[in-house]
Amino acid sequence: MTASDPLNYTAEVKLPERIVCMTEETTEWLYLLGEEWRIVGISGFTVRPPRARKEKPKVSAFTSAKIHKILELEPDLVIGFSDMQAEIAADLVREGVTVHICNQRSVAEIFSTLLMIGCMVGAEQKARELLGQYEARLNAVRQAAEALPRRPKVYFEEWGDPLISGIRWVSELIEIAGGDDSFAELSVHADAKSRIIGDQDRVVAKAPDIIIGSWCGRKFATHQVVARSGWDSIPAVIHNQLYEVKSADILQPGPAALTDGIDHLQRIIHQWGALQNEQQRGEKA
């Protein structure tokens, strides 16, 4: 190259074509964008979309990963989520792998993260179109909530032993759907340890109208919940307002929470609202 030769770095620029997704939301998002061909490895916990489990090798859990398997895939990008995957990320970086760790906690941050990933794979326009649809969906849900007789108090249980609640994006989605999160004050904490409720009597004191459980891949055992000491006085237990939302639909800080997740919350809260209206009509009669 001589001094007069022009630099042409852009000719060598390539978007990532071999991506390992260590959490489900990134996998689902790339499929929705039509960029699934870039994915070479996924998390073993992935269930959305179902076809991903058939098409892509599973190389990680959530807090652990098969580093040698990931390296064998020769990824040009690995995408993970939160401090829980920090050690995995560090191991991969030491091996010379490019790693991006997302850390979205709020609904707004989910939108920002999904747009960023869309840009990373050259699908910004498609990403903006889908995000526009999600935003319209949330606005419609918020508007529909105005018809509720009142806002129910909602206790969302992320884990049952110890009791954990207050995960931020879920708390915000409950508010959008028309409810008041019983432990919204815990949503300022990103880590689960800081959101441990501790004394079960704290839930009793909140007197939630609705209890929703999503136990991180485990089935929400309502019979165990109602058997807890003192919980028979909680309105949600008295009126049998206990529900499960699958963790894949609500605890994934990605497309699922903004679609199926909010739909589940809306259905549950509006069913409660319908019962309230029936009771009011019965009292007037």
Q: What do these coordinates show?
A:
There is one protein chain. This protein starts with 18 loop residues before the first strand and ends with a helix. Helices cover 44% and strands 13% of the residues. The chain folds into 2 domains: 91 residues, Rossmann fold (3-Layer(aba) Sandwich), CATH 3.40.50.1980; 136 residues, Nitrogenase molybdenum iron protein domain (Rossmann fold). It is an alpha/beta fold. The strands form 3 sheets. The chain has a 5-stranded parallel beta sheet, with helices on both faces.
> How would you spell out the order of helices and strands?
EHEHEHEHEHHEEEHEHEHHEHH
Rg, Å, rounded:
22 Å
Residue ranges: pLDDT <50 for 5 or more in a row? none
CATH homology superfamily of the largest domain:
Nitrogenase molybdenum iron protein domain
Q: What is the CATH topology classification name of the largest domain? A: Rossmann fold
Ends: how far apart?
A: 91 Å
The CATH architecture of the largest domain would be 3-Layer(aba) Sandwich
Strand residue content: 5-15%
Number of structurally distinct domains: 2
User: How many β strands by DSSP?
Assistant: 11
Major sheet size, sense and barrel closure: 5 strands, parallel
Work out the oligomeric state of the chains in this entry: single chain
Q: Give the integer mean of the pLDDT values.
A: 94
Main-sheet strand order equals 3-2-1-4-5
CATH class of the largest domain: Alpha Beta
